[in-house]
UniProtKB/TrEMBL annotation:
Name of the featured protein: DUF1211 domain-containing protein
Location in the cell: Membrane
GO cellular component: membrane
Pfam families per record: TMEM175 (PF06736)
Keywords: Ion channel, Ion transport, Membrane, Potassium, Potassium channel, Potassium transport, Transmembrane, Transmembrane helix, Transport
Organism: Aquisalinus luteolus
Main location: membrane
Membrane disposition: Multi-pass membrane protein
Family statement: Belongs to the TMEM175 family.
Molecular function per GO: potassium channel activity; proton channel activity
Amino acid sequence: MIRQAVTDGLEAREIDHDPHFQWRGRNVTRIENLSDIVFALALGMLVSASSPPIDFTDLKFHLLGIIPVTAGFAILLLVWNMHFVYFRRYGLGDRTTIFLNAILLLLILFIAYPLRFIFDALFSYILIAFGHTARIEALGIFDTMMAGELMRYYAIGYALIFAVYALMYRHALKRADEIGLSTKERMLTALSVQVFIMQIIIASAVAILAAMPPLWVWASFLFFFNWPAGYGLRWLYHRKLRKLEQAEGATG
């Protein structure tokens, strides 16, 4: 099913936070309802993953937990926003979209607890620098080999989620004629696919380096390449868009 496109461009620019796209998905479907429930469950699992405090020391650790919880919460919200934008942009509800969305929801539920554990561990390593070792010992991480394995899990989950999004956007691009994507929208969709592929490559490199003993300490720093690489891709595509707009203006 493909929902009817909304033709009021002014409304899209003033209300939506995606001004370069005409949003085709205006009504919330059952696919999105189910997805929002799953995201809400995952966010709840992330926040409530730790046991309730039973004494003052536990309470202090619980309050400090707001830092890793916030990091994991931000990542899940980023993934949710990508999901929200996809269904607003394309309004697709066919079998392929349902199948890929189901895989995505399974991944979201599966990574909720590991995501909390990973950021708890990263925060605990920061506390070690200040002489507090109890938190990392409570997590059962006793050497750098375990830390490298933990980073591999995170990188693999990260790559899988972006692989699903890349497939979803590729699918939308294949149905561009049916849903009426403009030339600019096709280019932006292709840009999204390229950005997702870039994320997959970087996450895969992190997972590989995290399995190599001399390099696993530095593996996570590869994630910082996401910003310059993503910015470079967007700059190239926006340059193409400007040329396209200039050409359209000259012929008009």
